[in-house]
Structures are given as structure tokens and as C-alpha cells.
């Protein structure tokens, strides 16, 4: 599998994760999201940017869904309730895994959100 973005072919793993994280850009994220069948809303970008920040600025940390919910409770003040369902709205195949794929990060090996 690979992605074609701006006349470049980007190599991926068998599960569609970028092999070279330096290939990532917002255009690449949009192409991966399109392949995943999702639309990138402002909140989806919040999730992507949070995951990238955690990974690159916190020793390769890949937060699980519980930690993502804790973070976004303080960020998404416009929502009545921030829970895992609020994350799944943007990444229905699993916010930790699918959002990491769109964010250009390696595949996480953990099973679930907790």
C-alpha cells in the first residue's frame, strides 16, 4: 500500500501507516483521511496535533483514549460532555489508532482505549 500526494509516492506499512514520518504534511493527512473515509474537522485536527505533539515532544508517547479524553476535557469547552464517544465521532475506527495513522505516526501496539 502507498499514498500518492502531490506527485509523490509515500511508502506505508501493510496497515497503511507511513514508513517515514518525515513524509507527513497536512496534505498527506488529508489523503490518508480520504482513504480512511473520514472528513477532517477542526476537532479532528486538534486530535491529530495533540498526538503528534505527544509523540515528538514527549519521548514517543502515544496516548490511549482515556488520556486523550482527559486532555480534551480541558480543551473542548464548547461540548457538554467530552468522552470516548466524542473522539469516535471524528475517528470512528478508533481514535488512538486511526488518528495516529492520519497523524503520520507509527502503529500503536496496544489493544484498546484503556
Automatic annotation (TrEMBL):
Superkingdom, taxonomy of origin: Bacteria
Gene Ontology biological process terms in this record: tRNA wobble position uridine thiolation
Top enzyme class: transferase
InterPro entries xref list: DsrC-like_C (IPR042072), DsrC-like_dom_sf (IPR025526), DsrC-like_N (IPR043163), DsrC/TusE (IPR007453)
MF terms in GO: sulfur carrier activity; transferase activity
EC numbers: 2.8.1.-
Main location: cytoplasm
Family statement: Belongs to the dsrC/tusE family.
Protein name: Sulfurtransferase
Organism: Solemya velesiana gill symbiont
Amino acid at each position: 500500500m502507498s499514498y500518492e500526494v502531490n506527485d509523490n509516492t509515500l511508502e506505508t506499512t501493510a496497515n497503511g501507516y507511513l514508513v517515514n514520518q518525515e513524509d507527513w504534511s497536512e496534505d498527506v493527512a488529508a489523503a490518508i483521511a480520504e482513504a480512511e473515509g473520514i472528513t477532517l474537522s477542526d476537532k479532528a485536527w486538534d486530535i491529530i496535533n495533540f498526538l503528534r505533539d505527544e509523540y515528538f515532544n514527549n519521548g514517543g508517547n502515544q496516548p490511549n483514549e482515556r488520556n486523550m479524553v482527559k486532555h480534551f476535557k480541558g480543551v473542548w469547552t464548547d461540548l457538554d460532555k467530552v468522552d470516548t464517544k466524542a473522539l469516535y465521532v471524528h475517528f470512528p475506527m478508533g481514535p488512538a489508532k486511526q488518528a495516529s495513522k492520519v497523524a503520520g505516526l507509527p502503529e500503536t501496539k496496544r489493544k484498546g482505549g484503556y
